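wait is this the right file?? whatever heres the structure
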């Protein structure tokens, strides 16, 4: 047994290394900086590269360049940095460039409170790209999740050739817990599928029966095969196009490759029975308070279930609908003023949805949740 006492940010760094990450670039920002510090210690001995850009825009650009050569890459920041990442995130989506982005959220808006936690970036992670195409967003609850979901994030980025967000926050990233890393069961590592020799002229054309195109690294085989990359609307051959049919086909494919597959990477916890009348829906660090609150509510005679979502986007609609069945009321609890609750309301139909949120830098505690459910 290898029990270690680590914070969430260190667990993310260790998870990245275990997943095969060999390139990290970032810019110091509270409360994500310790991920950068950890990568400085972990990557060089493993033959990797860790570097600081002159700002957030340069840092994510370094990551995209490294990914285009075939490296597994990661960057980490907080809300203000995510704002600066936006243009390059759109490039990663449109250019189908694998990348893991950690957002250790802090209280906003703007520079807000650097040492206060929140979940205020949730909608921004999903919609903060030009064009509004889907992204994958995973939300850890604790230090163990930080490690495991980071490994999954790299696998998903490689499999679907897309950016994947880890929506942590200050309270998760800077809380220390004991974790037996050696005892964790990790998924098998996934590497992006490489382009066959007879397919290299069509860098954005999937193989038959697939949604995601195979990958041809920049300077592959010493430069003997041409690799094309663009941030503009393009056809399967990688050349810029104004053909509306080709543009639409490419956009729908990039949408469908994630939305159609979300059932394969829907991570969640559920505690309840089919007879429970109340469903509490949470994610992130608030899940820890919700577990205690649900236990207390049951002791008080309430029939209540708990759904902890760890895949936020694409919205795991099938999972949510399944756990909404038979419920008379739903409570959504978030460390913001109401962001993911809109997705639950969309799926709940006639089931009443109530929201409790707070955005003042303080954690929501079990008493808060119990009072809201009982009111």
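ok assuming it is, sequence goes like this
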């Amino acid at each position: 047994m290898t029990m270690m006492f680590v914070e969430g940010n260190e667990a993310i760094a260790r998870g990245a290394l275990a997943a095969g990450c060999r390139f990290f670039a970032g810019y110091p920002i509270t409360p994500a900086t310790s991920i950068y510090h950890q990568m400085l210690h972990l990557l060089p001995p493993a033959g990797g590269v860790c570097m600081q850009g002159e700002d957030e825009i340069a840092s994510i650009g370094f990551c995209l360049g490294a990914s285009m050569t075939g490296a597994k890459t990661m960057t980490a920041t907080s809300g203000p940095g995510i704002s600066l990442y936006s243009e390059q995130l759109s490039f990663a989506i449109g250019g189908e460039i694998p990348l893991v982005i950690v957002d250790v959220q802090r209280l906003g808006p703007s520079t807000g409170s650097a040492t206060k936690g929140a979940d205020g970036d949730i909608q921004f992670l999903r919609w903060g790209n030009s064009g509004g195409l889907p992204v994958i967003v995973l939300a850890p609850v604790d230090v163990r999740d930080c490690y495991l979901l980071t490994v999954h994030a790299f696998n998903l980025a490689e499999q679907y050739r897309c950016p994947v967000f880890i929506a942590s926050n200050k309270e998760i990233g800077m809380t220390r817990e004991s974790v037996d890393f050696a005892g964790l069961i990790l998924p098998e590592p996934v590497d992006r599928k490489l382009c066959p020799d007879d397919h290299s002229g069509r860098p954005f054309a999937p193989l038959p029966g697939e949604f995601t195109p195979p990958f041809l690294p920049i300077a592959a085989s010493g430069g003997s095969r041409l690799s094309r990359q663009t941030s503009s609307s393009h056809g399967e051959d990688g050349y810029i196009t104004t053909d509306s049919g080709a543009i639409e086909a490419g956009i729908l494919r990039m949408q469908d490759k994630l939305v159609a597959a979300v059932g394969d990477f829907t991570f969640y916890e559920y505690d309840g029975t089919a007879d429970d009348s109340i469903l509490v829906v949470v994610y992130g660090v608030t899940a820890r308070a919700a577990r205690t609150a649900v236990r207390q509510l049951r002791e008080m005679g309430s029939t209540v279930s708990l759904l902890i979502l760890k895949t936020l986007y694409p919205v795991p609609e099938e999972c949510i609908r399944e756990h909404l069945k038979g419920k008379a009321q739903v409570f959504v609890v978030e460390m913001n003023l109401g962001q993911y609750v809109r997705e639950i309301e969309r799926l709940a139909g006639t089931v009443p949805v109530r929201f409790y949120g707070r955005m003042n830098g303080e954690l929501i505690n079990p008493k808060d949740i119990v009072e809201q459910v009982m009111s």
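DSSP finds twelve helices and 14 strands in the chain. so i think its the right one actually
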